[in-house]
Write a structure and sequence with these properties.
about 300 residues, Arc Repressor Mutant, subunit A, 3 domains, about 45% helix
C-alpha cells in the first residue's frame, strides 16, 4: 500500500496530539476525516495503530516503527519543496567561475545554464595556482580544478576522476603505443606547461619518481597552446584525459608512471551562502550522477 500525503498527515497528527479531535484541529480537516484515514490504514496494515490509555490514543509499537519511516518521507518532501522554491526564485544573478580545464567545466556550465538561464556566468580559464588564489581572494565565486587541496576553508564537490595522459599527433612514432612510461618519453621532444599548472605538477612528480630529469622542447602557458603544438607535430604534450571536448585524431595515451586518477572538483569558500552558488553545487552533483551513469552504461 502506498501512503497518501493525507494519510501520513493524519497519522502524524494523532501521534503528536493523542486525540482525533486535536489532530483534526492541528491539520485543519474534520475529525471524521482523520478517523477514516486511520481506519483505512489499520485495515491495510492488518494491525491496530493506536490503543486507548489514560484518555489518550497512544501509538502501538508497529505505529512507532511506521512513523519513524514516514517522518523521513515528510522531511525529504520538505527538502524537495525548498529546492524547487529556490529553483523558481533564482531568475537572475551572476557567478564568476575559474576553470583549470575546458572540460568537464564547460559541460557543467551548459547544464547549469539550462536550469538557470537568467544567471550570467563570467568564466576565467587559468592555471591551478591562479584559480586557488582567485577563490581565496574572493575574485572568483567557484573554481573547478583537479586535486583541490584538503582545506577547511573550501567546500568541494567531486565531478569525476581522471588521470594525466600523454597526447601525440597521429603520425608521431609514439602514437602506435597503447601505453607509455617516462623512460620512453625521455627519447621524444616534450611540450610542458608552466609551473603553476596542475598538469605539469603531476608530470614533474612522475619523472622525479622515475629518477629522470627531462628537458622540454617547448614550455607553454596554456593547455590550448600545448594542444595546438601537438597538433602541428612539435612534440608530445600532456593533459587531463577529459580536459577537452575535442574529438579530432590527437591520440591520448596513458602513462604508467603518472599515478592513479585524481578527483576533479567544484569548490567554493565554506562561508559562502549565496543561493546561486549553492544552486551551482546542486547542478554539480547532478552532473556527477549523469557522468557515472554514462560511464557504467
Amino acid at each position: 500500500m502506498k501512503l497518501s500525503i493525507a494519510a501520513r498527515r493524519a497519522l502524524h497528527a494523532v501521534v503528536a496530539t493523542g486525540s482525533f479531535a486535536a489532530a483534526a484541529r492541528h491539520t485543519g480537516v474534520s475529525q471524521p476525516a482523520i478517523a477514516q484515514q486511520i481506519k483505512e490504514l489499520e485495515r491495510h496494515c492488518g494491525v491496530p495503530l493506536f490503543e486507548r490509555r489514560n484518555a489518550q490514543w497512544m501509538p502501538t509499537t508497529f505505529c512507532e516503527e511506521l512513523t519513524e519511516v514516514t517522518a523521513q518521507i515528510d522531511s525529504l518532501e520538505e527538502q524537495a519543496a525548498r529546492i524547487l522554491a529556490r529553483r523558481h526564485s533564482i531568475h537572475s544573478g551572476q557567478l564568476r567561475i575559474g576553470l583549470g580545464n575546458s572540460m568537464p567545466g564547460m559541460a557543467l556550465l551548459a547544464a547549469f545554464q539550462r536550469d538557470y538561464p537568467g544567471v550570467t556566468l563570467t568564466v576565467a580559464l587559468n592555471d591551478f595556482a591562479h584559480i586557488i588564489k582567485g577563490v581565496l581572494d574572493g575574485q572568483l565565486d567557484i573554481g573547478v580544478l583537479p586535486n583541490v587541496p584538503s582545506d577547511k576553508r573550501f567546500v568541494r564537490e567531486t565531478l569525476l576522476n581522471q588521470e594525466v595522459v600523454a597526447i601525440a599527433h597521429p603520425e608521431d612514432p609514439v602514437a602506435r603505443f597503447e601505453y607509455l612510461n617516462c623512460e620512453q618519453l625521455m627519447h621524444v621532444p616534450l611540450i610542458f606547461r608552466s609551473r603553476g599548472s596542475s598538469t605539469q605538477h603531476i608530470v614533474d612528480a612522475a619523472f622525479r619518481r622515475a629518477g629522470l630529469s627531462p628537458t622540454a622542447r617547448l614550455a607553454l602557458d596554456t593547455r590550448d597552446g600545448v594542444y595546438e603544438a601537438v597538433a602541428n607535430g612539435l612534440g608530445v604534450g600532456f593533459m587531463w584525459r577529459h580536459g577537452t571536448g575535442r574529438t579530432d585524431a590527437i591520440r591520448r595515451i596513458p602513462v604508467r608512471d603518472m599515478g592513479p586518477p585524481c578527483p576533479e572538483s567544484v569548490f567554493r569558500l565554506a562561508e559562502t551562502q549565496d543561493p546561486v552558488v549553492k544552486a551551482f553545487f546542486v547542478s554539480a552533483r547532478n552532473f556527477r550522477r549523469s557522468f557515472e551513469t554514462a560511464a557504467n552504461a
